[in-house]
Amino acid sequence: MATYNTYTLANGLRIIHKPSVAEVVYCGYQIAAGTRDELPGEEGMAHFCEHLTFKGTEHRNAIQIINGLEQLGGDLNAFTNKEDTTFYAAIQKEHIAKAISLLTDMVFHSTYPQHEIDKEVEVICDEIESYNDSPAELIYDEFENMLFEGHPLGHNILGNADQLRTYKTADALRFVKRNYRPDNAIFFVYGNVDFKRVVRLVSSAMMGASSSTSMASSSSGAGCASTPGRFGQGAREITKDIGSHQAHVMLGTRSYDIHHPLRIPLYLLNNILGGPSMNARLNLALRERNGLVYTVESTMVSYSDTGMWSIYFGCDPHDVRKCLRLVRRELDKVMQKPLSDNALQKAKQQLKGQIAIACDNREQFALDFGKSFLHYGWEKNVEKLFDSIDKVTVDDVQKVANELFAADKLSTLIFK
């Protein structure tokens, strides 16, 4: 039995509703266009347009956009990823009509006025500078660029300050016309609101928004770069002298896309190695037993057609090689010694418990709910995810470890 409601408008927009008893409603547009949809010469454009979408429409100026929901106590926000861009609001349910009107106007009727671009581009450049001052964050971008070199997935989402300063209204409108289309987006709602009313409100607000189906589509069209393949060119090591007191280190490889049958086994193994719990193997080896790091974590990202798995840690520059040896030892253990059935069951329970707690975050749940429909056409269902985790075998985990963790597969980036 479906636990959600869905309806597709004539222009191709999918409306998705997840009922709840809460009085606060989360709703918004998620567009299947992000950094990887930037054409050559458009680097940083997806994030640039996200910022400028708040700066004026055919019906509202920037101040009216700011006050539209926030004067009611609501929250209006947006963010850009590699494969999607999201504009969303959190409001009391009685203000759902105002939220739909404002969000629709922003996404489909923004004008990107040049005088606002000239101001906002400096805000984005300050954002870039603040990011550059944080090596622990910057290294993630540079490492992804290392793994996906020459492909838009490797591009920094924020872009380059000098290039951003050259962008004009026409550039933003060109990108938006190609990507911000109803048939390339979903409107999600999570809350205690009547779905039929939501459909009527969105339909009315969408008047005049063409599907523009003749333009390039996102994940399968000219605006989206081709699949970069699962694995890179083999192991590489790059060291950069950034003059920091602490060394920052990442190692990893390309991995599985969202549809790959080994994605869930990697999800489980990643949590065993470097998940958020203090008993993660890498934390025990580097921090608890040896006191070499404050932070060590492993991360997996699955895109529509590829993925990335990595380890990050920060340490004293003199301890980099020792930490790398300890990391290698832990990876060799999971490659050479299969998990016991008892250890596997404990790992499954831990991961499911973490997921259950994360689902208590209603805002993140709403965003994940929408994204699952945007890219994959199905509801993110916790019960199904738990079932997939329960089906993971010792052999599955071993296969992932041996396929991804071999020394000749892992590239390393070191900031000193």
UniProtKB/TrEMBL annotation:
Its cofactor is Zn(2+). Residues 171-351 form the Peptidase M16 C-terminal domain. It comes from the Bacteria. Gene3D superfamilies: Metalloenzyme, LuxS/M16 peptidase-like (3.30.830.10). InterPro entries: Metalloenz_LuxS/M16, MPP/UQCRC_Complex, Pept_M16_N, Pept_M16_Zn_BS, Peptidase_M16_C. GO terms for molecular function: metal ion binding; metalloendopeptidase activity. SUPFAM superfamilies: LuxS/MPP-like metallohydrolase. One of its GO terms (biological process) is proteolysis. Residues 21-159 form the Peptidase M16 N-terminal domain. Belongs to the peptidase M16 family. This is Predicted Zn-dependent peptidase. It comes from Xylanibacter ruminicola.
